Amino acid sequence: MTETNTRWDIFCTVVDNFGDIGVTWRLARQLVAEHSLTVRLWVDDLRAFERICPAIDIDAAQQYQQGVEVRHWPVEWVHTDAADVVIAAFACNLPNDYMDAMAARERPPLWMNLDYLSAEDWVVGCHGLPSVKYKSVQKIFFFPGFQPGTGGLLRERGLLEQRRRFQQDAAAQRQFLQGLGIERAPDAQLISLFAYENAGLDSWLDVLAAADTPTHLLVPEGRILGDVARWLEVETLTVGAIHQRQSLTVQVLPFVRQDQYDHLLWCCDFNAVRGEDSFVRAQWAGRPMLWHIYQQDEDIHQDKLDAFLALYTKGLSPAAAEAMNGLWRAWSAGQPIGEHWLAACKHWPELQENAQAWCLEQGLQADLATALVQFYLNWI
């Protein structure tokens, strides 16, 4: 049996709006496009899916999008045969009937829990280990990660070269931005802001507004809009709104397709992102960034944040590393970040070089889709 005649099922429950579906949709497309696999993507919330893939029919129980069979994951499960490879994304629970179907196969499928991304040291030791067992079917831990010995990161074939060419083509960038209604002033720095609600935002906007260098802040639809509106002292912000205060121009963008979001990140000088999918895509942009990590009970997320910062800032000078650590930790804690932003700006060329070097370093590892396929080939 080869990789090209196997069937893969990916199950996704949408927990945090777009992160879960964002990762699984990218993965499903890549498995089809680059590995010629037959992939079904089971999703319980097609409305959230529609935001990143407008072609989705939210009323269809079954449809095909970009070579992927998309199935609505119904409350009342209808029996279906189990695939050769079954991926439970982010520890979601599979339907009981489907688990029985896995156990009924003559040859049990490879059942993997595609876990959340983390830079913590223990991930390397747990990657590929057995988890729970259901009858004859053993579940395996599969961890994305930043270090050898993990599953790597989602990265499509040729992505970094595509990004490099785009960032060297001023005309292509200008055309893309104009397609979103963005007119960038020649001397303005471009920043994207995609984040959860954050009490520390006001101090950052205050500093950007008072700066000598103009800033054009691009804010896609999302949870941070309420905080931006309060700072601007307006009741609501809708797509297309443009407000200016001193040196700061704020523009609200529509929620865009994944490939458009990639290009937006590539255009910007600095990207503030959230969750997991946009976090990884910002790293592939090769530009300085700020991550709003998803908050977890008992501040468990803090360990994940510290572990990533230890890797990401390893190549920086002590002063630059201290500035980045202060900025990221304050932002994730909802604390004022204005002074931390000014401290980071003192090391801007070094932060730019570090972002590029980190991107290239991560690009040397096998991508997540390839790692999954290779794991299956080794397993059989």
UniProtKB/TrEMBL annotation:
Coiled-coil spans in chain: none
GO molecular function: translation elongation factor activity
A UniProt-annotated Pfam family: EarP
Gene symbol of the encoding locus: earP
InterPro entries (alphabetical): EarP
Lineage: Bacteria, Pseudomonadati, Pseudomonadota, Gammaproteobacteria, Pseudomonadales
Reactions accelerated catalytically: dTDP-beta-L-rhamnose + L-arginyl-[protein] = N(omega)-(alpha-L-rhamnosyl)-L-arginyl-[protein] + dTDP + H(+)
Family: Belongs to the glycosyltransferase 104 family.
Function: Protein-arginine rhamnosyltransferase that catalyzes the transfer of a single rhamnose to elongation factor P (EF-P) on 'Lys-32', a modification required for EF-P-dependent rescue of polyproline stalled ribosomes.
Keywords from the UniProt entry: Elongation factor, Glycosyltransferase, Protein biosynthesis, Transferase
Designated name of the protein: Protein-arginine rhamnosyltransferase
